[in-house]
Amino acid sequence: MPFYRKKWFWVLAFMGLAAGLLFLRCSQKAVEVRTGHAKRQLLEITVTATSTGTIKSDTEVKVAAQRVGMVSAVHVLE
To answer: What percent of the chain has pLDDT over 90?
Structure first.
């Protein structure tokens, strides 16, 4: 009779599998999550003008709107 048909083989195989799964589950580290509070504040960006008269920002941000419309005014301090 082959060894894989004996009861003791399957008992040992099950115990080994259970021990391996328990070891893997206990050895995993918890994920560290950092949180913070959101706050409302003004957005300021410094821009510089080139010799051709165009205004160029140091960083560029793309903003997409949900609505279609026309910009009626851009308030700038000189």
So the answer is: 10
